[in-house]
Amino acid sequence: MIGRYCPDNLLMHCDLTYQCVCGTECPLLETMHDGRPRAAQLFLRHKDGERLPVRVRAVPLRAADGSIIGAVETFDEQHPTSHQRIHPNAEAVPDHPEQLTGLSDQDSTQSYLQACVRDFAEERIPFSVLRIAVDDLSGFRKTHGPVAADRIVPMVAVTLSKNLREGDIVGRWAEDQFVAILLDCPPASLAEVATKLKVLLDAVAILWWGDRLSVTTSATGATVGPDDTAESLLVSCGVSRPGKNSQLVANDLREK
After folding, report:
1. What is the model's pTM?
2. What is the distance between the alpha carbons of residues 58 and 167, in angstroms, rounded to a whole number?
3. Which of 52, 90, 117, 120 is 20 to 30 A removed from 142 (C-alpha atoms)?
4. 32: which residues sit within 8 A by CB, 6+ positions away?
């Protein structure tokens, strides 16, 4: 941001309803106008392109006579919290990160899901599964090249991991697909999470040869039921079976 104007909107601040606040409800601008310190929960775009949840604090800068000559804004990264119940079987699963994104690989994600199903059968600990797909990643790769694709996929992954609650699990299932396991997440909350993530992921962008490149995403989900297996939940979300690498068409978000 050094040497750049705040109205350039490089940070692309948006509020908890995912509305852009630059120029309308900007904490920094409001503090410069009235001199009152303020704080807000916002999302901003990191210089690498991912979306991060932050707590923003703005304080005025004053001259010796008390007049406002500017303002300072600070950002503290925040992680969503929850009070979900512990999944004993899932917590015992060894995690193996996938190389490009650092998220759990497909085998680990499958093992986590099977363990959560066992926890539901034994302890009735509820959870939901969400499949997030990058739309037409093959077209993006063809247009902009494989290096650009390998740059933007990790940005999607980081945005996912940073905006899920502590304790939720997300892994990379295929080249263009991620699977998130949301603990203590009923159907109504699943729809809210899917909407939130889609808005944040669609704002992810990378700088590439002077252009700002972005992708769109789609989400499908299911909530565990008494007769579910790991495979049935994945099928309900439109996810290919383990080991398959087929391209899938996104279905509408629905509860199991």
Report:
1. 0.70
2. 31
3. 52
4. 60, 68, 70, 71
Residue 243, C-beta contacts closer than 8 angstroms, at least 6 positions apart: 106
Query: pLDDT (tens digit, 0 to 9) for every residue of the chain, 256 residues total?
Result: 778 777 777 777 777 666 777 767 788 888 988 999 998 888 887 777 777 888 889 999 999 999 999 999 888 887 665 555 667 888 889 999 999 999 999 999 999 999 999 999 998 888 999 999 999 999 999 999 999 999 999 999 999 998 998 889 999 999 999 999 998 888 888 998 999 899 889 888 898 998 999 999 999 999 999 999 999 999 999 986 544 433 333 333 333 3
Cβ–Cβ < 8 Å for 199, 114: no
Q: Find, among 256, 251, 49, the residue nearest to 131 by Cα.
A: 251
Distance CA 226, CA 100 (A): 36
What is the spatial distance between Cα 120 and Cα 252, in angstroms, rounded to a whole number?
25
